[in-house]
Amino acid sequence: MTIETPQGETPKASPLRRARLWLWGLVAIAAAVTAVLWFQQRSTAPTTAEKNYASAFGGGFDMIDQNGKTVTDQTLRGKPYAIFFGFTRCPDVCPTTLSRMAALRKQLGPDGDKFNIVFVSVDPQYDKPKDIGSYVTLFNTPIIGLTGTDTQIARIVKAFKVYYAKVPVEGGDYTVDHTASVFLMDKDGQFVATIDHKESQKVALDKLRRLI
Amino acid sequence: MQMFRPVAVGALALTLATPIAAHDFKRGAISIAHPWSRQTAPGQANGGGFMTVSNTGKQPDRLIGGSSPASAKVEIHTMSMTGGVMRMRPLPNGLPVPAGGKLELKPGSHHIMLIGLKKPLKLGTLVPLTLRFERAGAVTVQLKVEAITYGTGAGHDH
User: Angle at Cα B70 formed by Cα B67 and Cα B73, nearest 5°?
Assistant: First the structure.
């Protein structure tokens, strides 16, 4: 590569200019080293929560189940689980998804009880533990139904990166838009896969078989 | 008003691939095949309504509303699924039933909502529902209350 220089000037850079370039180079290297060290220090010394939940979905949460008992990410450990977010007044995608999970469990036969089905309400204003309880009973299979305060819901929703939004409708009522995927978590609470509402029953069954 | 229409019922049974109790309703050019709902739990405020509406006439019609003694309100809703997010919205202007065509109200799509249930919808019972059509007027049907797992394609249908 050639560097064009104006006439009259020596083509070689002056010693002063070379020194300045060197100094700038050193500054850049120092900055890079500092950045690398900072990131390394961050990644080698994670908090306990970060260590446990390196994956995209999941994390710490504490909720109330249909019997008024506290359920956390820690109490769910030891058994894989399929977790789904919805609300009891949802007439369609929620019963459809929970029915599907119940049917999948049946198809697994004796292995069906090797995972928990967890339903989380994103409508705590309406869904109290009792309401969740009578709702999940309809599916004729054990389902852990969770609700909580707005703060508790906000935490679990953030952990699973779930979208939900209260949308007012005519007459002062509201509906809730929400993510409709099922998250499959292993026995250590680590994210494994999702089940999408469009996936075939066979694909979903294979995913569950791998999970348990 | 109730009429047995084996052809329509047979066609519907084929599309859903599930055996269906024959129950059909007709008024003028509008006929409604197997209107059903899902059982609800105590405290569950809303119920859904699903059916196939056929228009054998030469004029388009429109489902514009309804009422039921079982709930405070009846609304026509649509449901969409984008980016994995479920969204449900009322359709205040209702839905068209094209001339010689059909309007399907089914899970995962357009449906009727019974808002503010006065008591839970019990499995195996019939719930009266009056639908209002722009042209055909009021058509009263009986929603058959099916299991919550019904119509989900989850192999639970009976």
Answer: 40
Which amino acid, residue A26?
A: L
Low-confidence stretches of chain A (pLDDT beneath 70): 1-13, 36-55
Integer Cα distance of A16 and B79 in angstroms: 71
Q: And the tokens for A160?
A: 């699973």
A91 in reach of chain B (CB within 8 A): yes
Q: What is the pLDDT of residue B155?
A: 43
User: Does the pLDDT of residue B97 top 60, yes or no?
Assistant: yes
Residues of A in contact with B48 (CB under 8 A): 91-92
| Nearest residue to B135 via CA among B65, B74, B53, B62 | B62
Distance from CA of B57 to the nearest CA of A (A): 31
Handedness of CA A47, A53, A57, A58 (dihedral sign): negative
H runs (alpha helix) in B6-149? 6-16
Tens of pLDDT, residue by residue over A10-36, are: 455 577 788 888 888 888 888 877 776
CB-CB contact of A85 with A153 (8 Å): no
* Residue at token pair 């050019």: B29
Chain A positions in Cβ-Cβ contact with residue B155 (cut-off 8 Å): 103, 106-107, 201
